[in-house]
Amino acid sequence: MSLKEHATNVRKNIIDMVYAAQSGHPGGSLSGADIITYLYFDEMNINTDNASSNNRDRFVLSKGHASPLLYGILMEKGIISTDLIPTFRQVDSKLQGHPNMNYVEGVDMSTGSLGQGISCAVGMAIANKVDNSPNRVYAMLGDGECEEGQVWEAAMAAAHYKLDNLCAVVDFNGLQIDGNITDVMNPTPIDEKFAAFGWNVVHIDGHDFDDIRRGFDEARNCKGKPTMILAKTTKGKCVSFMEGDYGWHGVAPNKEQYEAAMECLCGGSK
Amino acid sequence: MAKVATREAYGKTLAKLIVEKDNVIVLDADLTKSTKTIDAKNARADHHFNMGIAEGNMMSVAAGLAASNKVVYASSFAMFAAGRAFEQIRNSICYPNLNVKVCATHAGLTVGEDGASHQSVEDIALMRAIPNMKVFQPCDDIETAAIINAVYDIDGPCYVRLGRSGVERVNYEDYTFELGKGVILNKGEKVAIVATGMMVQEALGAKDLYEGNPTIVNMPTIKPIDTDLLIDLAKTHDVIVTIEEHSIIGGLGGAVVEALAEHNLCPVVCMGVNDTFGESGKPADLLKKYGLDSQAIANKVNTYL
Predict the structure, then answer these.
(1) Is residue B174 part of a domain?
(2) How many C-beta atoms surround the C-beta of residue A91 within 10 A?
(3) Residue pLDDT, tens place only, B112-144
(4) Where is the Transketolase N-terminal domain positioned along the sequence (chain A) (predicted)?
């Protein structure tokens, strides 16, 4: 199966979960689907055998509200079952609205409060340095999340300790709950800020697998500093009526919209 | 014997622990000389990380380290650990139940001259309210060493409240710390004084001022509170008086009242900082002004003896 087909399945899982729960965050989950698919299928050494172990590459979803994205890729990897889809955001479910590392195999950190996940990833990267471990740490942030001051505290610390085993991806879809990021509280230029903090910065098209591969290759080959990959993405990607509309940040589709979304995705997988 | 601050004992204990235990990592926020984690840094520099003046980030970094099988001791002043980084402690550390020991120094009014901005009198209340968190406050150097070693073996987050000022030794060298247990220092009658931290010394120091013989209890574990002992004290005394260098809202007094409320056994009188900010001053002068010195304790206790 191609990366594109895996990514389409991840997107279907996302829509299935959010529709079943009638709650959740489809827009920013769909925008990160191609990046996370590349990470879990071509970049990170994670599989069904080592998912519950610490001794592998780790991924922190710092933008924890995109939990359907993380659950969706773990389902596509066969680490958790798609049988869990109807339980998303329901009482007694492992699939909490924001990820809980103790409930779900393969979830490496409990996240949801923005800005904290990137710091946790810094801690994991420091641990790998202390242990002389070759394992790498990846984190995905939202662009709106970069309005949190803690992101820059973490950026400072990662550069200070020369964490070249850390790679942060900013899912730059340009939208947050209240609108365009530049209208709400402009965090740009995010790339120049990270560079000023001492990071290696790479720009990619977050929906082009060749470009995604180039970005992670560059990150892996950069020594002496952490890498930030600024991934230009489209919020709601591959569901035509959700694309580029901040109204789909945290809203579930109704039955007609669900069917229309699935039609978009079935077309996309061919 | 010279007075020793609990933070001094913390640094000395940590310096041993960081050498003995390979998985111990120590974090500090530019206060290594004040919190005394510098002793651990001097003992094993590559397991000590200064995270700079960024306490929120430090707590989440601690969580990431703990998620990688490390036991993390993270230190700053109580104001900036429990206060500024409250939400990181709650969401990054306590919600996933990670192995981070937040060891906060300079708690309470006896920070002294720095004044109200640095005098944390709310940290017990904040930390106690978080699920999974355990809360400790040693009264002297011996108890500090025992608690710092004990929290290493506890699987999950802990908050250890430490002081800036030197305090007299209360315990003997053979003291063994029991998690969740209060320690009866004097068995008396009518009034049971339950104190924590350096208020234990103040309660003991009032001995000649009491118009009777009150029971004096040291309560080093504030969460989980020793409910069995409290019920026992309530059944055998007319009144329990709690004393802490912390707000009367939500601290040791709150924990005692919560534990006893449903049992309807005896009244509880809470002594502490009376819902107010502190101010600059010498520690002894502050304890006197805010009604937390031996004389103030004796005055209160004597009304029930």
Answers:
(1) no
(2) 5
(3) 999 999 999 999 999 999 999 999 999 999 999
(4) 5-257
- Helix (H) / strand (E) element for A194: namely helix A190-196
Chosen from A59, A126, A160 to mutate, greatest number of chain B CBs within 10 A: A126
- Nearest CA among A128, A2, A126, A157 for reference residue A54: A128
The CATH number that applies at residue B203 is: 3.40.50.920
Q: Cβ contact (<8 Å) for B92 and A101?
A: no
Q: B182-219, pLDDT tens digit by residue?
A: 999 999 999 999 999 999 999 999 999 999 999 999 99
- Domain limits at B80? 4-167
CB contact under 8 A, B60 and A120: yes
Residue of B nearest to A55 (CA): B68
pLDDT tens per residue across span A1-35? 999 999 999 999 999 999 999 999 999 999 999 99
How far apart, in whole angstroms, are the C-alpha atoms of residue A121 and residue A166? 7
- A102 vs B91: CB contact, 8 Å cut-off? no
Question: Could you tell me if residue B200 is inside a domain?
Answer: yes
Nearest residue in chain B measured CA to CA from A115: B57
B177 in any annotated domain: no
The answer to whether residues B147 and B227 belong to one domain is no
Shortest alpha-carbon distance between residue B168 and chain A (Å): 38
Q: Do B56 and A122 touch (CB under 8 A)?
A: no
- Residue among B8, B55, B143, B245 flagged as catalytic: B55
Residue A268 has pLDDT above 90, yes or no: no
Q: Is residue B107 part of a domain?
A: yes
Task: Please answer yes or no on whether B61 and A161 come within 8 Å at the CB atom.
Answer: no
Residue B168 known to be catalytic: no
Q: Which domains does chain A have, with CATH numbers?
A: 3-266 (3.40.50.970)
Contacts of A195 (CB under 8 A, 6+ apart): A201
Is this structure's pTM higher than 0.90? yes
What's the number of domains chain B is made of? 2
The shortest C-alpha distance from B54 to chain A (Å) reads: 6
Asked if the ipTM is above 0.90, the reply is yes
Task: Give the Å distances, CA to CA, from B175 to A61, B143, B145, B161, B183.
Answer: 46, 7, 10, 19, 10
Among B167, B196, B225, which residue terminates a domain? Answer: B167
Give contacts of A109 with chain B, Cβ < 8 Å.
Answer: 63-64, 67, 96
d(CA A152, CA B202): 44
